[in-house]
Here is the input.
Amino acid sequence: MTKAMTGAKMVVQALIDQGVDVVFGYPGGAVLPIYDEIFQQNHIQHVLVRHEQGAVHAAEGYARATGKPGVALVTSGPGATNAVTGLTDALMDSIPIIVLTGQVPTFMIGSDAFQEADTVGITRPCTKHNWLVKETDKLASVMHEAFHIATSGRPGPVVIDIPKDVQFATGKYTEARQVETHYAPQVKGDMEMITELAKAMETAKRPVFYTGGGVINSGPAASQLLRELVAATGFPITSTLMGLGSYPASGDNWIGMLGMHGLYEANMAMHDCDLMINIGARFDDRITGRLDAFSPGSTKAHIDIDASSINKVIKVDIPILGDCAHVLEDLLNVWKSRGRKTDKENVTKWWHQINEWKKIDCLSFKQEGKVIKPQYALSRLEELTKKHDRYICTEVGQHQMWAAQYLGFEDPNRWMTSGGLGTMGYGFPASIGVQMGHPDALVINVAGEASWLMNMQELGTAMQYRLPVKQFILNNERLGMVRQWQELLHGERYSSSWSESLPDFVKLAEAFGAKGIICDNPDDLDDAIMEMINHDGPVLFDCLVEKHENCFPMIPSGKPHNEMLLGENADVANAIKSDGAVMV
Amino acid sequence: MSPLKIKKGATSHSAYELRPTFSDKEEQHTLAVLVENEPGVLARVIGLFSGRGYNIDSLTVAEVDHLGHRSRITIVTTGTPQIINQIKAQLGRIVDVHNVNDLTVEGPSVERELALFKVVGTGDHRIEAIRLADIFRANVVDSTLESFVFEITGTSEKIDAFAELMQPLGLEEIARTGVAALSRGSDT
Here is the structure.
């Protein structure tokens, strides 16, 4: 049965049919008919953000914390262009979101009409797919297909651009089950390749699992299967920034995050391993360091759902195209049926070596005197919140790396951070999206003061919807990571990397009706954090920290994994040569 | 599980050569890309090449199946084997793309290009031009007392050779279609 309805109603009906319960958005002239339909129903809650970028990041945060696609609704022209950063962020981190944009009526497209922008043209390179819907009859099927494309294969953002006359006109509503699509990425891996990997695992002397965001995107089953495989083989496991939580930080085989600011033992294991099993990661430049010196002696296996990620930067020996959960299930079965063999003697030696590296204790720091070290602040935050039903977001910079180093993640979907694009201003709106998905959970955004100010207007959103998001700001009055790079690369000339005229964050919170807390003394920190946790409402926590702290350990750009800078005693001034300096 | 109906035969085994090849030598490949005939699909393909810094030596596009709503894009591109594999995988990732075939590696294929040449001249040059056109089996499709328009079909190399010969004989303008290509034999 096809029902006739207006395009605007179709949009809302399709959202309901797709199981959407919350939409983040901002109204404007070209989406008024859709807002009118939202007003007349009770299935979907609309969250009014304060800026369209906030809407898209909130949808991303919601998607990552719930495993369901996030939805944002914005108007034409500036509404759509403000969404571009969020779309690019979601594309880089493979986050399934659906962004609906209003458009000027079809008969005005191309006339430079008021608030007209070529939205599909602008968003083509920053979406997985996009549509300009010119006929109301096609709107519902495009909506359903958009959810399918955003969530299947390698997930990503999609945009549906809907002209205002299409929203007003009446057409036939198409149900999801009536929609035909040819888009069906391969999820099962090649059994020959999987068997080849199982054989390599049986004889490996120095194996390591290197996992990424793909395991989390694949769903909870993938994380469960990964844990089974790690327990069954006894191999060490490291993860990228994006993959934290797929294997628990308290797990026996966990050797910490790898990469530019990863742990010494994780990077050394990557460099010296003889079998690298990449599951759902993509050999990002933050991970590999210098390419020609990346893990020189290892056989490399790569499980990925995206064929273009395989052999893109690192040539692999055992490529497996497929979904992580499907491949892990088959791999586990093959490995068990072949008799659960590993080279126990050599793997034990390998663990001895890793434990030697662990003794370096690369995350050690000394909290002395009356100034709070950022590492100390995060260690206390971890200690006081780890027993809670906790979700962590971050902004981008030093605080983000410290959060990844000092906070432990036991489960997937608990860690929301802008990995690929590195978007300052991501964390606060993302925390709003997370809290919408998990109203009773403790949602904390670990922020730097500069990042946080980029989307501070969303404090209004948090207040309006009574979302008790905790903004834990490590305030060093600097763009800390920029400052660190200027120290390493540019002769300590700190060009524009300090923050003058910062607001009084307590007063700023109070101006919005939220709670502000300031803490500058390590002795007061625990009480202040407890006060933040126990307050039923949004909190702005201004944690004044050491201003010149650098983030270590660090693989300087242009260097391989086994040449890490370990801490304050490192030869920082000469760490990066000119060939490394051109890299970001 | 998607609530949508997945068309039969849509989930195919990977067409991509995932085993790495280690040569750094640049090669020219002809790719046949079957796409949904939707607005913007050509922009997606071209945007991919410009955005990721790949080369386009030649590109042709036209609808080939009106009822099935399909167009065929033939791209001639140059790169190392790793880049060529990346191009194929990236093309395959575009939602509107149904199939990517590398005609250069998937067995023998035929390639043809059509070109129009305007040659202006009188006397010996004019006579030599029509004589060479005859050798190359080019047709005269327009003629005045001091000009010809030749139509020539063949491989790109043949058209290049014809252009070189016409240059001193008064070649004024060339229009080329770019390469169209099909695999040989009964397999599609």
Summary: Helices of chain B lie at 41-52, 81-93, 124-135, 156-166. The beta strands of chain B are 5-6, 27-36, 58-65, 70-79, 97-102, 109-120, 139-144, 147-154, 171-176, 180-183. Confidence is low (pLDDT under 50) at residues 9-15 of chain B.
